[in-house]
Write a structure and sequence with these properties.
Layout lengths: L9 H14 L6 E4 L6 H4 L2 E7 L17 E7 L2 E7 L10 H14 L3 E10 L9 E9 H4 L26 H13 L6 E8 L8 H9 L4 E3 L3 H9 L3 E11 L12 H25 L3
Parallel strand pairs: 1-4, 1-5, 5-9, 6-7, 7-8
Antiparallel strand pairs: 2-3, 3-4, 5-8, 6-9
Helix pairs in contact: 1-3, 3-7, 5-8
The structure holds 1-O-phosphono-alpha-D-ribofuranose.
1-O-phosphono-alpha-D-ribofuranose (R1P) binds next to strand 5 and helix 8.
């Protein structure tokens, strides 16, 4: 008998999505996960219908500042979308099942395309705070050691036991993000690179950042990869972007510090740009 890993049954997830569908008139095919400090995007939706996480049965609640904790349905660029205004992280003490529960709920709501956003530290020395990195690929550090969100009995109704991840970040959507960036004059701030997911909540040591740089990582954070794996497992198309909120500290210089308020401030500075980038992207998504 295998160890028991916390999981939600198909019926649990179906019940949550039914709860939402019965109370909401939107039928989104596009889902958006808002990263630290990037939740303002959800406030720009038209015809909003919002559900605080506390009001949704079996949903976890947000505990991190910069994550408001609401599922917001509405219209963006003429299309129905659903936004997670705040995500869940493993470092908050949540199981992988809880971290990724909203992705499966979105699947049963009818979401086919997922845009995942985050704030991340720049590891690539060419990156400066305010850059926006299109995620080309990720390295899932907890997953490499076995803490994968798909660990545990596989639910075939969602997807296969051994899903491929070599094409996790859809090439066509990445091209659409580049086109959207051009439309809103952001091309000069765009990068494309590899995101490393670490468990957190401590920021990285200098040695850890040097290690990440040596293996080809461009940006580092404490989210995203679990959501993307679960989204791909159930057949969603995925695209991701990281707002580079700070430079990773690669020198032994105690005068350099990184703080979550700096991460949130970077989100405030780029809020309008991210909103126009995402609304232009949504325009370009085929439904
Ligand atoms: O990945 P998001 O949720 O955007 O937030 C990032 O910012 C927080 C650290 O400042 C961590 O949660 C990290 O993952």
């Amino acid at each position: 008998m295998a160890d028991v890993v916390e999981s939600y049954s198909y019926e649990d997830i179906e019940a949550i999505s039914k709860f939402l569908l019965e109370r909401c008139r939107h039928r989104p095919k596009i889902g958006i996960i808002c990263g630290s400090g990037l939740g303002g995007l959800a406030d720009t939706l038209q015809e909003q219908e919002a559900f605080p996480y506390e009001s949704i049965p079996k949903f976890p609640v947000s505990t991190v500042s910069g994550h408001k904790g609401r599922l917001v349905f509405g219209v963006l660029s003429g299309k129905a979308v659903v936004c997670m205004q705040g995500r869940f992280h493993m470092y908050e003490g949540y199981s992988m099942a809880k971290v990724t529960l909203p992705v499966r709920v979105m699947k049963l709501l009818g979401v086919e395309t997922m845009l995942v956003t985050n704030a991340a530290g720049g590891v690539n020395q060419d990156y400066v705070p305010g850059d926006i990195m299109i995620i080309k690929d990720h390295i899932n550090f907890p997953g490499l050691c076995g803490n994968n969100p798909l660990r545990g009995p596989n639910n075939e109704k969602f997807g296969p036991r051994f899903p491929a991840m070599n094409d996790a970040y859809n090439a066509k959507l990445r091209a659409s993000l580049r086109a959207a960036a051009k439309l809103c004059g952001l091309s000069d701030h765009m990068k494309e690179g590899v995101y490393a997911y670490l468990g957190g909540p401590a920021y990285e040591t200098v040695a850890e950042l040097r290690f990440l740089k040596a293996i080809g990582v461009d940006a580092v954070g404490m989210s995203t990869a679990p959501e993307v794996i679960v989204a791909r497992h159930c057949g969603m198309k995925v695209c991701g972007l990281s707002l580079i909120s700070n430079k990773g500290i690669m020198e032994y210089d105690p005068s350099l510090v990184i703080d979550h308020s700096e991460v949130l401030e970077a989100g405030r500075v780029r809020a309008a740009d991210i909103q126009s980038l995402v609304s232009n992207l949504v325009k370009l998504i085929d439904e």
